[in-house]
Write a structure and sequence with these properties.
Blueprint (H helix, E strand, L loop, with lengths): L1 H21 L7 H23 L5 H5 L2 H26 L3 H22 L6 H21 L4 H19 L4 H26 L9 H8 L1 H16 L4 H7 L2 H12 L7 H30 L9
Helix pairs in contact: 1-10, 1-12, 2-4, 2-8, 2-10, 4-7, 4-8, 5-6, 5-7, 5-11, 5-12, 6-13, 8-10
Length: 300
């Protein structure tokens, strides 16, 4: 659990500061950025799997239909999430991306209850209710249907559920997901070249090198997230996620200077209140469970 929590915190901090990185490529279309993100993620993960000597694990995937289907689903879901996120950041919707990742933990809890049969205790239910009220306040204050937020929450929530069900080494799993969408990315490169609309190849050398690093920028937080998902309750993992959108919200206000109302700040405070309640309830629940374990010699 502690190991999972550390991995989750690292992943969400990385995701929280990602808007700063994608803003560097503000003039490049989101689809083109996504294609590079996929290709260079594949290259980086291929190198990592080679260093770890885990190419043999790929045989297990090829021979398992269920694994192939799960990895195909997770690969397509995370690619869709990347595309929406890049488009939103580069079109000045950072506040809405933050809202999407505030919604995501609530969706995680719902998915955990329905598909993984996790059972929140009363304190955790209270936290969920407070967070739900906060998100509702934020959505109403936003003034229009937050399709970006809903799409981000749904795609990443379902991706997390898929990862929870995939019993694979994190590196091998990520490499497999990028292989799923790699043909689409390469096909898009060919299309852009054929119509003369490829912009990234005309970037300044320093900017292009920065884009090459998108593989590392993309894969590292996903690597830590995969490790966390394998070690933590899915609902708890979702609540730790509030770190990421909180950083995004702060960036949208203080760096990108997007307008934020007082109502949004109230919602922000309620969400952090919910996070504290959830953390306290989780710790107490763990202590009660330990106290109820029979002290028999067979457990020593």
């Amino acid at each position: 659990m502690n190991n999972g929590l550390i991995n989750a915190i690292i992943a969400y901090i990385m995701w929280g500061v990602l808007p700063l990185y994608w803003k560097l490529f503000n003039d490049v279309p989101a689809g083109e950025i996504l294609s590079h993100r996929v290709v260079w993620s594949f290259v980086f993960m291929g190198i990592l799997v080679t260093v770890q000597r885990r190419w043999g694990d790929m045989k297990r995937i090829v021979t398992s239909r269920s694994l192939l289907l799960s990895l195909t689903a997770s690969g397509l879901l995370i690619a869709a999430n990347w595309l929406i996120f890049i488009w939103a950041v580069n079109n000045n919707h950072v506040v809405e991306t933050s809202l999407g990742y505030y919604l995501n933990p609530l969706l995680n809890v719902l998915l955990a209850i329905v598909f993984l049969h996790e059972k929140p205790n009363r304190g955790q239910w209270l936290a969920i209710a407070v967070a739900g009220a906060a998100v509702l306040i934020i959505a109403i204050d936003y003034g229009r249907f937050p399709w970006v937020a809903i799409s981000l929450a749904a795609s990443f929530g379902l991706y997390g559920l898929a990862k929870k069900k995939i019993a694979l080494n994190a590196s091998v799993g990520l490499l497999s997901e990028t292989i799923v969408v790699l043909p689409i990315a390469l096909g898009y490169w060919v299309y852009l070249a054929s119509v003369g609309k490829a912009m990234t190849w005309t970037l300044a050398p320093s900017m292009f090198i920065g884009l090459l690093l998108s593989g590392v920028v993309t894969a590292l937080p996903l690597f830590f997230f995969a490790r966390a998902a394998a070690r933590m309750a899915f609902s708890t993992l979702g609540f730790v996620q509030y770190i990421g959108p909180t950083i995004m919200l702060l960036l949208s206000v203080f760096v990108f200077e997007e307008s934020v109302s007082s109502t949004l700040l109230v919602g922000f405070a309620l969400i952090w209140t919910a996070l504290v309640i959830y953390a306290v309830a989780s710790v107490r629940g763990t202590k009660v469970t330990k106290m109820n374990v029979p002290h028999d010699k067979t457990y020593v």
